[in-house]
């Protein structure tokens, strides 16, 4: 499969804003890295640079890399799902997902039986079968997001770059999409990079987190290393409490500023009344 390595990536936008400033990361085959950070931190810009869609300084490599140069070759190893995909409103869901096969089609661009079969499988996995004939313009936000993901998966990439793939989804579909991606990385060794707003979901699914703050890496490590209440407070300017589940995975819960004191008292009360550990 594919290892994605980015070294010292810097993106200067037209107008001079430095949106990404010296970010390095590495994700091996079967790995899942989540890029976190507040609005405007540079997450989407970093993903676009990794996807080769915008100019950047530094290096981004896939090992093994594309068989040749050009978009088509890159699209066979890498699928990128933008934060706000533009979907042609008149196109039917199935035909749109079939577009994911474009990098594999021959000169005439006609999908074969194998392409169609693969697309049916993806539609099914994302519960899009009943919507397959619907025009994209008629879908709800969450359905659109799943259709866009389906197209990315139909590409059969070795690496998936997903920009906030769960933002428009309800809780059940969030879980469905995250579990699906997790299955793909475990079973097929897909290399996964996602940006995620939900810090708890990021901690549950990604093995490694990169927390961006104004374009720079504020923290990089395991969920437990990165998601401390102090760091979340500093980077997001939010008051949170971080609890740890039995597997050691942190869960981040917002705390209303006015109640932070009460919360702290409650926490210390809980601690004081916890039964003593077994000797
Ligand atoms: P995030 O995805 O973390 O919310 P972005 O990567 O979208 O952040 O944006 C990072 C910064 O770059 C923001 O300040 C944003 O306003 C700015 N930015 C993004 N795209 C452009 C653009 N095309 N032109 C100018 N500024 C941009
Ligand atoms: Mg973004």
UniProtKB/TrEMBL annotation:
Family matches, as Pfam families: ABC_tran
Keywords assigned by UniProt, alphabetized: ATP-binding, Nucleotide-binding, Translocase, Transport
PROSITE patterns: ABC_TRANSPORTER_1, ABC_TRANSPORTER_2
Residue ranges of domain ABC transporter in the record: 4-239
MF (Gene Ontology): ATP binding; ATP hydrolysis activity
PANTHER family, A to Z: HEMIN IMPORT ATP-BINDING PROTEIN HMUV
Protein name (database record): ABC transporter ATP-binding protein
Organism whose genome encodes this protein: Actinospica durhamensis
């Amino acid at each position: 499969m594919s290892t994605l390595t980015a070294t010292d990536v810097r993106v200067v936008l037209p107008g001079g804003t430095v949106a990404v400033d010296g970010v390095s990361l590495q994700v091996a085959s079967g790995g899942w890295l989540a890029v976190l950070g507040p609005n405007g931190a540079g997450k989407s810009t970093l993903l676009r640079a990794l996807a080769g869609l915008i100019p950047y300084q530094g290096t981004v490599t896939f090992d093994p890399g594309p068989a040749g140069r050009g978009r088509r070759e890159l699209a066979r190893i890498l699928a990128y799902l933008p934060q706000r995909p533009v979907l042609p409103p008149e196109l039917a869901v199935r035909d749109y997902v079939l577009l994911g096969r474009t990098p594999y089609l021959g000169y005439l661009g006609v999908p074969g039986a194998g392409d169609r079969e693969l697309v049916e499988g993806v539609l099914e996995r994302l519960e899009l079968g009943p919507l397959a004939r619907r025009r994209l313009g008629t879908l709800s936000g969450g359905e659109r997001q799943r259709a866009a993901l389906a197209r990315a998966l139909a590409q059969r990439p070795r690496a998936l770059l997903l920009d906030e793939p769960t933002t428009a989804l309800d809780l059940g579909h969030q879980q469905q999409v995250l579990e699906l991606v997790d299955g793909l990385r475990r079973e097929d060794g897909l290399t996964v990079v996602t940006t995620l707003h939900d810090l708890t979901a990021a901690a549950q699914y990604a093995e490694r987190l990169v927390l961006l703050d104004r374009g720079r890496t504020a923290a990089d490590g395991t969920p437990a290393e990165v998601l401390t209440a102090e760091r979340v407070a500093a980077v997001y300017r939010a008051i949170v409490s971080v609890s740890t589940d039995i597997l050691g995975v942190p869960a981040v819960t917002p705390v209303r500023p006015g109640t932070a004191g009460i919360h702290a008292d409650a926490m210390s009360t809980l601690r004081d009344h916890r039964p003593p550990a077994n000797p």
